[in-house]
Design a protein that fits this description.
heterodimer; A: 668 residues; alpha/beta; Rossmann fold; Beta-Lactamase; five-stranded parallel β-sheet; five-stranded antiparallel β-sheet; 17% strand; elongated; B: 131 residues; globular
Amino acid sequence: MDSDQKQTVLVFVNAHPKSHVLIRTASNTAKENNLNWVAVYIETPDHASLDSEAQARLLRFSTLVERLGGQFHQVESKTVIDGIVAFVEGYIESGKSIKNVIIGQSSEEGFFAELRASLAERAARELRHVDTAVQIFPLSGNFYTPSWFERFRFRDIQFADIGYAVLFVALALLATETLKYFVSTTEWWINEHNVMGFFLTACVITALRYGLIPGLVSALLSFTCINYFYSAPFYNFGIDNSADGVSLSIFLVTALIVSLMGAYSRASNKALMRKERRSQALYSVLRIATTANTRKEALRILHGELSKLLELKVAFFTPSLMRPEEISMVYPEDIELSENDKNALNHCWTHTRTTGLGSLNRHDSNWRFEPMITSKGDIGVLGIKINDNTIIDASLGRLITALADQAASILERIELTKLMGESRMREEQEKLRSMLLSSVSHDLKTPLASIIGSLSVYKRMRKSDRLSPEIADELTETALDEAQRLDSFISNILDMTRIESGEIEFNKDWVTPYEPLAAIKKRLRQRLRYHKLEIATDETEYEVEMDQMMTEQILQNLIDNAAKYSPANTEIQVSFGPDGKGFSYKIRDQGKGIPDDKFEAIFDKYERLKLTDSQIAGTGLGLAICKASMEKQKGRIEVSNHEDGGAVFTVWFPKYRNLIEEKRALNS
Amino acid sequence: MTLAGKHIVAIDDTQSIRTFLRVSLEDEGAHFYEAATAQEGYELCQKVKPHLIVLDLGLPDMDGLDLLPRLKELFAGNDELITPRVLVLTVRKGRKTIEEACSKGADSYLTKPFMVDDLLDVIDEELNGLN
């Protein structure tokens, strides 16, 4: 049967010391009938005021539930009954069915216990419209409820707060004294009845702002003040008449109640705020950590943020690559563990179970170890050192579990990205290698085929004595051309390799722009025999900073290309001059121009490789080399199509100077 | 050997290859026609109706392997025409490519670079058969 279609046993637990009986009952029922089971804890505002023992117990229950194969839910609600009803209804609405509900009933003792229905009975009544059996399970011993005083966090008290309590009462006294001074007694007689309001205000403010003890202090102090200053006999603690006594007593009771209520609402508020802060912080921690790209960075961010959030010592333990079965790496590295701590850690890693403080496997350690689990299994352990001031309660425990889960998924993501990146890189390299091989073999073999072919024809015809001088010339010229092409292709490959490996050093010099062109004209005479090379006149007023050898090579490549890709008897124009902040050469041919989608691609050596053998041998890499060597010179190379047809290559250098202007500037 | 009266079309984008093919084949007495692209080559074959086609695989406008079946189609089903022999001349020497070329109708396969005597032997074999 599919686990989603299985019926569920629901058990509601609280901090009652015997709740584990309920949990085991639910677990056994579920196991016997092959059902799912879920344990639910309803978190009411009282939760914040549970004592540390009860909190720790809840945490143990949650671990127990998970160990026994159930799910643990913690649900917030104003009252327990509302929480139970809401959870049951929500569960059924989500399409799951409930076999039965188990609720514990403690044997309450006391005056009203006989008169009122127990919590479990009331819950059962509320659930009677739901199609499920409610099983009430008696638990021996007292149902744990926090007493009134336990609900306040006495350890929060600071002496400064008591100082503020005194201050507020003093302010109330000051206000009444001021009134007494300014308001004439014929209009208003100041006595304990009409000053009570001022003091009550002081009590409320103190209780709300500073909690129970300062609130009580202010209540007592106010009472004393009124008694001393405003009730007869004045400036004395005695009380003259019984009416004053009654009203003073009423004031005291009111002030005490107000203080208690104020302090109580403050405590709940604070608990809520703490919770809110935790979830906010959790969210932000994870958001920040998701930006990490390496494992180390992620650990650093997670460590920093978690330490800040929890205000506790945090450590990540991971296995090493060499020995994956053993936890041996720690982040940060300066963490020291005792033997007990190590036992707890190893237990956590080997059994994939929460260990240490507040867990079922404490090992007498002050650390809490939470396994970091991903879909692929556990990848490490999150350790948190719990100090003496921190109560490890259910909410903190679950927070740590959530943090461990999230940390695990972040680390897993990084690991996966890395693996994918590596394999993609290997694939890419492999593809590139085979592309390079096929490209190189084509580019080398085509000219070789021509050379071998031409020469073998030459030899064959020579042998049979049918070789005319014209044909001999044609064949040798073809062979020579191809040999040159082969030479330039091999140099291109070597150049590219040298530039990429940084082997070529660039020697920058101030050069007049015509210089690199001068040699090219002569050198390319053979290749340009079908084209007309038009070079702009020598302008000696400029000097450009460049590596002359490299620039010659680039310009020669471009002019050679222009000849290759434009029809015979057309013109190739080379011009140069200042261009923006720099200086540029422009080489224009009268060919078909560059297709719109190829402007970038023609400079890309990989693009060239993709074409394999369908292109003229020895081309393409030349442009990639031009681009690489222009980049080394901090310049750039671009291509565009001329509006009158043909491609225009622009070679741009960032630095040039105007000699004439500089001379003029010197003279003046 | 002689190739007298034979019409041979070479489709190859490398000028220098076409040059020495022309010189050597004309020397043997063949009528030589050349094309640099697949399109040109197809049209030329339509016009010339050659006895033999020398085909390069890496053509700029179409892969020779795609052109091959179209060339064969051109002559299939027409009894008046002799289906030309096709000799593939390429740098590709992968087993798969060779098999593909043969299955698509190539009669011979020669990898570049090659000696012209070998080429002429193959052509002789194709056109004149083994004596």
